[in-house]
Amino acid sequence: MALLDVGRVCRKTSGKDAGTFCIITGKDKDNFIVAGADDKPQKISWKHLEPTHIVASGKDAAKELKKHKLI
Question: Each residue of 40-57: pLDDT tens digit?
Fold first, then answer.
């Protein structure tokens, strides 16, 4: 299992959303597609993501973030 797989909770390290948490919901050629607390999907380079130890399933992703008090 790779460190940046679908379902991994990450912290954004740059941009206006730096410091917020998100979940990887997909991948394309160069970027990861992530959903944050506002559930608006964004394309973010892997260089701007810091992975955490938390992996959430697709159905329970929001519950995982709330459980760990990330949102």
Answer: 788 888 899 999 988 887
The CATH number assigned to the domain holding 21 equals: 2.30.30.30
DSSP notation for 29-64: SSEEEEE-TT---EEEEGGGEEEEEEE--STTHHHH
Range of 42's domain?
A: 8-67
Q: What angle do CA 60, 63, 69 make, to 5 degrees?
A: 145
Q: Is residue 3 part of a domain?
A: no
**pTM score of the predicted model:** 0.76
